[in-house]
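TICKET: design request
STATUS: open
ATTACHED STRUCTURE:
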């Protein structure tokens, strides 16, 4: 019986003196055909200048998402990040940064799709590497492309409250962002010479590649129109003058109980019986010399303060309102809490995420940090936290605890 000849490997070809590209071609050349072949989607616009311009725009969007995302991450854990936590003022800072974060991420979706199309032949060029130096570049592309797709898909899913996974979105999104930005820096370093050449004035004046179809200018205009369309139809969820254009936004800033959106209702949080209990009390305890327990009647009898503050959620929507209630710093003073105290705010909600939130010293002592009893002149709706909710300046909505039952000074 004659054994079939052993197929030569890349290693065999390299030892025979062939280049890396020739070795790949010899062993894997049969894989170069099919829907992902290098010439599967030919176009004259697969050129350096198109790729460079789109890369710069996408890089700006990604960098904006990364920096504003860091702010959001730190804002959601104010007692754990020290000096990195968000300040209490200006009051609307988080509303702006998170709105920009979601808008930039949404705009990056068409940019990424067109960018991937522009480099399609490079992604599936054959052989995949021509020399050893290209191996490093190829390796950096994988986390960049895969991580970018994951970040935009998971971010978009989060805005719609659709979670087809079991892992923690916030933790995974945060650490994947570091991977993507690291891969982006490495990719920019590898391509800086080519990018500089493609963006130079001489390249701008050079004639377009021969062929028919859409021109470079037409492609840039179409891409810009797509970015503008998705931005205009979503950014109205936080930019109130554009609310009527927010056709694709998962939230509208003026729709919901008392004209404000909600993410979790009292029924969904399973607190309807607890908040209707006539024996409800608010407790201020922890590291204080005089723990205090107040009934709702006693709480309502305390001096009240009014503040215009926005609820700004990590999903990108925000809505402003006038809140009226008791200052947290006044409640802390009743219990004798020391200056500089930090506070953990507890909801009566027994299960679910974000049952507690932290107030750093700056927020706890701010004059507009309230346990609100009213919004826009009316008693709080159960879905907005009746009988009392936390509302404070420059904080994400997940940190504005509803159905508050306890202030724990730590």
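STATUS: resolved
RESOLUTION: sequence designed for all positions
ATTACHED SEQUENCE:
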């Amino acid at each position: 019986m004659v054994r079939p000849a052993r197929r030569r490997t890349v290693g065999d070809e390299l030892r025979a003196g062939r280049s890396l590209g020739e070795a790949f071609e010899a062993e894997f050349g049969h894989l170069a055909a099919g829907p992902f072949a290098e010439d599967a989607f030919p176009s004259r616009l697969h050129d350096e200048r198109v790729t460079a311009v789109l890369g710069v725009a996408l890089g700006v969007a990604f960098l904006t998402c990364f920096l504003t995302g860091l702010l959001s991450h730190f804002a959601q854990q104010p007692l754990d990040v020290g000096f990195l936590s968000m300040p209490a003022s200006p009051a609307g800072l988080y509303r702006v940064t998170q709105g920009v974060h979601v808008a930039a991420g949404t705009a990056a979706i068409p940019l990424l799709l067109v960018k991937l199309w522009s480099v399609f032949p490079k992604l599936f060029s054959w052989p995949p590497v021509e020399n050893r130096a290209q191996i490093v570049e190829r390796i950096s592309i994988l986390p960049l492309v895969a991580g970018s797709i994951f970040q935009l898909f998971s971010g978009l899913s989060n805005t719609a409250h659709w979670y087809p996974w079991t892992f923690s979105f916030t933790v995974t999104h945060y650490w994947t962002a570091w991977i993507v930005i690291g891969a982006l820096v490495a990719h920019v370093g590898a391509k800086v010479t080519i990018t500089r050449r493609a963006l130079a004035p001489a390249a701008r004046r050079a004639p377009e590649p021969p062929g028919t179809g859409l021109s470079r200018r037409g492609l840039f205009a179409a891409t810009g129109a797509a970015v503008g369309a998705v931005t205009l139809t979503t950014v109205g969820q936080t930019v109130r003058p554009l609310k009527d254009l927010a056709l694709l936004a998962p939230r509208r800033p003026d729709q919901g109980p008392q004209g404000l959106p909600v993410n979790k209702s009292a029924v969904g949080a399973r607190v309807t019986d607890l908040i209707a209990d006539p024996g409800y009390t608010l407790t201020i305890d922890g590291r204080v010399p005089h723990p205090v327990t107040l009934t709702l009647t006693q709480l309502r009898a305390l001096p009240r303060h009014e503040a215009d503050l926005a609820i700004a959620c990590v999903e990108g929507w925000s809505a402003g309102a006038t809140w009226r209630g008791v200052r947290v710093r006044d409640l802390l003073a009743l219990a004798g809490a020391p200056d500089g105290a930090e506070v953990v705010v507890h909801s009566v909600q027994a299960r679910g995420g974000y049952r507690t939130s932290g107030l750093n010293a700056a927020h706890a002592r701010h004059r507009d940090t309230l346990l609100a009893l009213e919004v826009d002149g009316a008693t709080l709706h159960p879905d907005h936290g009746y009988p009392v909710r936390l509302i404070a300046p420059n904080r994400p909505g997940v940190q504005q605890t509803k159905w508050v039952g306890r202030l724990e000074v730590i």
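CLOSING REMARK: The CA atoms of residues 147 and 283 lie 45 Å apart. The two ends are 82 Å apart (CA to CA).
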